[in-house]
Amino acid sequence: xxxxxxxxxxxxxxxxIDALRDVFIAAGKIAAIGTAPGGFVADRVVxxxxxxxxxxxxxxxxxxxxxxxxxxxxxxxxxEAAVAGGITSLACPPDTDPPLDEPGLVEMLKHRARNLNQAxxxxxxxxxxxxxxxELTEMxxxxxxxxxxxxxxxxxxxDTRVLMRAMQYAATFGFSVWLRPQDSFLAKNGVxxxxxxxxxxxxxxxxxxxxxxxxxxxxxxxxxTGVKLHICRISSAAGVEMLRVAKQQGLxxxxxxxxxxxHLSEMDIGxxxxxxxxxxPLRSQRDRAALRxxxxxxxxxxxxxxxxxxxEDVKQLPFAEAEAGATGLELLxxxxxxxxxxxxxxxxxxxxxxxxxxxxxxxxDAGHLSVGAAADVCVFNPDTYWKVEPGALKSQGKNTPFNGxxxxxxxxxxxxxxxxxxxx
Amino acid sequence: xxxxQLNKHGELQHLLTTEGLPVRILRDILDKAATFVDVNDGxxxxxxxxxxxxxxxxxxxxxxxRTRTTFEIAAKRLSADVVNLNIGSxxxxxxxxxxxxxxxxxxxxxxxxxxxxxxxxxxxxxxRHVAPEIHVINAGDGRHAHPTQALLDMFTIRHYKKExxxxxxxxxxxxxxxxxxxxxxxxxxxxxxxxVRVIAPKTLxxxxxxxxGVQVYHDMAQGLRDVDVVLMLRLQNERMQGAALPSxxxxxxxxxxxxxKLARAKPDAIVMHPGPMNRGVEIDSSVADGxxxxxxxxxxxxxxxxxxxxxxxxxxx
Lengths: 424, 317
Hints:
The structure holds two protein chains of two kinds. Chain A is an alpha/beta fold. Chain A contains 13 helices and 20 strands. In chain A, the strands form four sheets. Chain A has an eight-stranded parallel sheet, with helices on both faces. Chain A has a six-stranded mixed sheet with strand order 3-2-7-18-19-20. Chain A has a four-stranded mixed sheet with strand order 5-4-1-6, with no helix packed on it. The longest helix of chain A has 18 residues, at 208-225. In chain B, 35% of the residues lie in helices and 15% in strands. In chain B, strand 7 (168-172), helix 6 and strand 8 (195-199) form a beta-alpha-beta unit. The relative contact order of chain B is 0.16. The interface between A and B is medium-sized, with 23 and 26 residues.
């Protein structure tokens, strides 16, 4: 099917384009930009007048909850939410039940996702069996089965010898290791940033040093082993600074931050809003400013949704007992746009953090609309204001700290491999 | 963000914390409590029919005998019907969610819930979910707040010291885990106490505690110098695990209140404790039973203050 997206403002960070350009799609790929290739006859014309055309968003952390937590969300519901949010590729962490630690589980997930014909799913497999932090998984087999990286999700890996061995083994094959830095002893029982709000509210706290100590261990071992390290969900100014130094020293490390942490701080907990119970905890306003700065000048490469659908029964509880996490697939784009607007950024620079940069971290030739690339495209209206109403979200998870907030930017069309998978 | 404790007329709808309460409301509660104390009759508390026909549910998710009893006495002196529910040992252990429990209690047509829960923020959570005509009184939520305790402490201070604006008050002990300390600090600063000190080792103080408006002391002798009021906190036995403290003996030596240390305070200083006391751990018996101690007055005033809170809430329908 040939598709002609006409009159849209094309923003393609990789190719440095931000201009009114038509996009021509044939056989699932970008056939031409600007002028139609010879003999092109459109089967479908998408009128993008007043709309912005960008590479489909790529999300580094989206929990689809399968297998094991189908009562919280299903592949069907979350894949639908992804394309409604303009997300065409997503990586899912291994914290399912059972965890993604066997090739069969990865194959099953890939197969189920493929049959839904929606966003591309890139499973991140468990670094250790059962995420227990004791024994290595069959990494090479898991990659053959289709996983793209290895992670502990939010499970602790306290034994530094196991961590070093895991990195060495991954480095042998050139695999990436994705880790969220948190010292499990310092974070024990904690539910909020160790700062003014936790002190006022009497919430058990997680100090910044829980992040920096773990990060220091990870960076040291990455240097030692030469592994490709990706740091997930950085939360503190001190952590950003350590990454800045590590990168300046030439270490092959990348880093992401959640869209929630770009916008919120501990202050948003207010009167114990359980939707602000997040992992890692929302930190101070100073930390949030450092995360934003880190996105612009190097230490942080990408913004992810950290999509964590949670059902009402486990969220509607007193703060500490409420399950952590926020639904995010449908809010990633508006939150990136909100950040761009608040900090007065070029849209292209902001959108690169959710398209081109995550593609690089995943090692994919994606996140751009070069001629010949797969036609994964998101077309959105930048001027549509809409109020976040949990009930209207496609995700089964209705848990969002942005409940009731007005955001800007609504996806109109999502294409994957040149197929229109979402339109409104 | 609206203050969840106040109704649209700015009156007290729930009592969840002393933080953010206007000083007029704090003073109203103290003044109202004074009307229930018959000073001429050995601090006797009168019985009045202000809550006649109302039902007060004591909903305790965490065990407590003392606090529950004083709330029960207060409600009965106001002629309310009182129902005591110890949920800690029933519903939640059967898997019922907190919301289900709250819904069920609402369906029993309570007028007022007195709630205690082990989690910080539980009282706010319950207040957010009850029917609009129900009032919630926080009888202690996790480490967060215990407003009636703080108010009875304020009443006691006012009874003995008359004014707040010329006082130096020291809070001694495990501030980190104490809902009482947090509520005391907010009440004291709101009522205009110019100098509030906290005295504890660093392991028992929360981060940035000075942002609550207190001065931090680690040396008890220095911290108690020239204070008018000493508010002791209870030290939970479990603090000896988890590396917060080495031993009860060492704690008593450096942070236990003895006559010798109390001598640093003003000669007419008063000593208070929310109970139950660990004699020989945070306070020496000679001080607890000594001339400076007003600990038993606190208990008596506690009933009057809880009567005041309940009658004010019932009046703000």
